[in-house]
Amino acid sequence: MKKFVVILLLAVMGYYISITFFDIGFGDSHLVEGVVPVKDAYLNETVNSLNVANTVTSIVVNFRGFDTLGEVTVLFLAVTALGGILYKKRHQAGERSVLFSASKVVTSGSKLLFPAIVLLGAYVFIHGHLSPGGGFQGGVIIATGFLLMLLAYENFTVGHNTLSVIESLAGITFAGVGIWGLIYGGSFLENFLPVGTLNDLFSGGVIPIIYIAVGFKVAAELTGVIYTVLHEKG
Amino acid sequence: MVGTPVLFVAIPLLAAFLIPLFGMIWKESVRVIPGIVLAYLLVLAINLMNYVMVNGPIVEVIAGWAPPLGINLVFSAFSGFLVTLMVFLGLIVWMYSYRFKRNVDFEPAKKYFLLLMMLITGSVGMVLTGDIFNLFVFIEITSISAYALTAFYTGRDSAEASFKYLMLGSLASAFLLIAIMIIYSQLGTLNMADIGSKMHLMKPAYKIMAIIFLFTALGIEAEIFPLNGWAPDAYAEAPGPVGAAFAGIVVKAAIYASIRIIYTLFDLSGAYDLLIVIGMITLIVAETAAIRQEKLKRMLAYSSIGQMGLVMVAFGMGTEEGVFAALFLMFNHAIIKSLLFLSGSYLVYNSKDKLIKEVNGIGKFLPITSFLFVLGSFAIVGLPPFAGFWSKLSVLTAAADSNMLLIIALVLIVSIIEVVYYMRVVNRIYFFKKDESVSTQRPTLNALIAMITLGAIVLIVGFYPDAVTGFLHRASADLMDKAGYINDVLTLN
Amino acid sequence: MIGAAVYSIRQKDLLYATIATGIISLVLSVLFYLLQAPDVALTEAAIGVALTTIIFIITIRNTVRYEDEHDNKEKFKSGVK
Amino acid sequence: MEDTLFKILDYGVYGTAVLVILIGLYGALVKRSLLKIVIGLSIIDSGINLLLVAIGYLKGGTAPIFSPGYLDNPKIMVDPIPQALVLTAIVIGFGVTAVALALVIRLYRHHGTLHIDEIRNLKW
Amino acid sequence: MTIIITIALSFMVLGFIFSAIRFVKGPTAGDRTVALDTITTIAVAAIVLLAYVFQRFIYVDVALLYAVLGFIGVIVIARYLEGAL
Amino acid sequence: MPTLTFSEKLSRFIVNSVFMMLVWIAFTSSFATHELIVGALTSMIISYLSIRLFTCCTISIFNPVKIFYMIWYLFVFLWALINSNLDVARRVLTPSLPINPGIVKFKTKLTTNYSKMVLANSITLTPGTLTIDIVDDTFYIHWIDVKTTDPEKAFTDIAEQFEKILLKIF
Amino acid sequence: MSIMEIIGGTFIIIGSIFLFLGALGIFRMPDIYNRLQAGTKATTLGGMSLILGVGFLEPSWMMKMIIIIIFIAYSNPISSHALARAMYKRKRYPLILSEDKENMDAYSEVNPHEKEEVKS
Description:
Order of helices and strands of chain E: HHH
Largest interface: A-B, 59 and 62 residues
Distance between the termini of chain D: 55 Å
Order of helices and strands of chain D: HHHH
Radius of gyration of chain E: 15 Å
Radius of gyration of chain D: 20 Å
Strand content of chain D: under 5%
Oligomer: heteroheptamer
Structural class of chain D: mainly alpha
């Protein structure tokens, strides 16, 4: 009976959402007449005054950099919350996350692949302003590399203190760059470096620095998440 | 001017990233740093309020791009007033919970104070921001801290309450995103002032869809009636000071956001009626539920929901007196409900089930705490010499001005219900015999200072309401001035 | 994608539902890619390919594998959990 | 070639997104297992993200990246803002999912079951 | 050229459908994981091919990521099935 | 973790950095100066940090003879891969599914873990075989069409051609 | 149509056919190990050849294509090996068609069979 009611409710809701979005239309400009959308300004400013190739990056880091700061904070809070929710008074002695190592093929394979994965992550977040990707993606890739090592070896450990130091330093870099912009240029996260030439690695002023900091931070945070969760024995 | 509004967000974030580092060197710093930060923010807020009272609102721009492009923060009389209130309450809650129960150990204390600080930061950000997606981000910051704080005690039910909250919260964020996208697809902008200035161009059908989704989403955070399932459980299972923070800070921020959206973004006249209807239903349902509760904190929680309904009704009148009354109610509710939660959690400190009957005769053992609780009860039901009286009076006069007699009758009936269940507790505190099996706990000095400060404010506002009404009139005028808001934001540079 | 979503909701075995969420994420990523959003596709790929799977699987390890409680008890008796 | 591709994409995308959202909502509301509820929530997130990206799409557009060869024609680029928003939304969704699963583990530790009827101590 | 790419894409779609059927039918978790692995490889190929269709070199990054990370998901599931987790 | 002497560390570091640099160039597909500088820095940092992990080989891997054998191995491997695919195609497309599966074992003379890993991967990709496990020196192979269960014969059938070359490389 | 395009097109067609055959093999084979055999080999070669074909069509992309090919060829066998080992430890014994059941399963000396077959 409850199922039936829920399905009915969902059908009504789905109908209204669908007609709204079908009416809005797909794949062409659906703005109200006479409105100048913000995206044109973004696209122009990105090329002309920031010299960043990837518009998504310039939006995420510069125009709407405040969102990104909040987003990084959300991840940071998620790590803290995980630690708080799964907190136990003391860890039992000899508690291990993985019971035995994988076979030789997997262990040697992951050993060889691990530096390559980290390099891929570094590539993704260093080139965040030129190609798709950036701090989050790079950080996630590095964390996945750590996940591989943690899975393959029974006694691979990650220093918890090291992680939190890296995380804090990266966070301070982000917020510090923002505050420096406030002091130097008059508003939070304002760009205070020369912007370089378009499609060069050293371009975009402060954007690559922030993205590298974000990359380190996300990598440390997600590794922390994986590590915490892996050591949770029901 | 001593600082800029962006420091309200930047400084706590910087401190949050610093806390783990300092915690390795000096363990006490995890407790001290949030206090220093909150005290600094309070000073900043008061300074900025002084500036705003003289010179008009401050509009802060992030990353040096003028508003339609960049994100902006607005520190006007209205938002500044709420920010000051929130930071002040945050400081009180911090002082109260300095060594409260599980906070004695290092690891939990680190997480607790960090999360508490971020809860306050998220709420302050929700109030300050002038960008609708930034609002979403701050809501998420607030909610994740709230989930973690709700589940902070390792008891059986806290995780359940937190899960319930989380489920509704993620639905809320999903709805919020849909609403944001409907608006964006039509107007091509995310800035609130820009949206407000272009809203008349949008088709009414889309407007209705967007406002339904927005209202559902924010209603979950603001405990509006059909969506308040999480609230009593979360209040009851969270640590005592966190309950105070929810009632005083988080809900205020959510109410602010929904009011800002209805008053500034949309020009639908039906929205005000919607506010009144929903507010009235919330009020009746919550108050009748409160009278049936057996646990102290759940009773307080339902009472809090009821008060929020009253605030909604007052906002829904749409006149300047109504807004003034609503703001006065919000101010009083923040102070008084925090006082009730803080003192109430010492009344039932050691009991397992936190039942109301366990406070029997506790007045002799904890005289100051009990006195403060009773003071809060008297104030919130609106007995004449206390703070709550003036706010209820202003609601009644505003309703009378708008010829809404139904509201007057409703408020009076609800007040009677409130009197019944609060007086029941007061009666038990002083005139019942103490149950010997219940052990009591004396409040620590810092908790006592925190509670007495709140009690003093209740008394001061009660005997001398003009202390705040000046600010409130200014703030309500500020909210009503939609054109001024849009003008302030959009004519920057 | 719809099929995978329906499958992962209807499947009683939570492990299979988790693998199905992996497929949802993959198809979603390809769709983002077709909609000319390589940034988003990259993010979805990076998060969906291993991280979501591992946290779901660890939850399954720490709790139960079958949605139906009766099934769990049966499996528990026969020693394979 | 590209025309057929666009025809497939045309209205199917919105339809798919809405259907996925509805399926996720159904799972979150009807299912009795906590893990199923979390899976439902993550499916809702997927659907919403698809919806948002679809709004920014422009027929015949290309990604908003000014790499060599695409320097001087911002008119044919798809809308970058929804993409930036979805980036944020995905990461936030992941954080929320992690917290939810931690709560599930803790509930199981206390109750020994994931079935929602046996857990419900608190009344709504 | 167009016709070649159309043929290739339709073959891939067919492959996807067969893997999906195996995913739904597959009696064990292993079979389903094999289907997931195959679909990942097909997706890598499809992404590279579509990058050629769209003529954007930078799109290839997505395929690179799937090629590197795709197998970690499989290893996660394999390690769980092995009983190591 | 074994302790390493300085020369071992140095040789590993160099090998590691060179490989990383090659991978980086492949990632960026560009020879601009900035890219190369950043790539060199990144690969050096990563190889310094992962010096204990990446233990595949010393600097002697740049010996021309070994490089020649590597290329030869590549060709042998590719030939086997194409063969195996034709084999799979034949089996899949035949309506009656001509298979006779089973598991056989054999012993190998290879010593290091990496060479075993490469051998196992090659076996997995060559006709009709799939490595199931390696226990010390013994390989356990799932064979889709078992011709013999004798370890010696199975070895000649499956792995001999690869092992000959691998012994020269490692 | 230049010579490069012809080579690239041929590779693409061959690759897509092998990808399809891999999926068909997964669909048709009787048990998990045989499915892994078919799946791994055919999809690996199919993907490699298709990506190589695209590399021929756009010679400046070649380097990235080669690195993708290396990664695919490196990681696919590892994952299928891990899966096969996991399934054996999970007590899913391979299907054996011939009469000589004892000798055909050499791996049972490491992981002895148990009587009961469990649904996994």
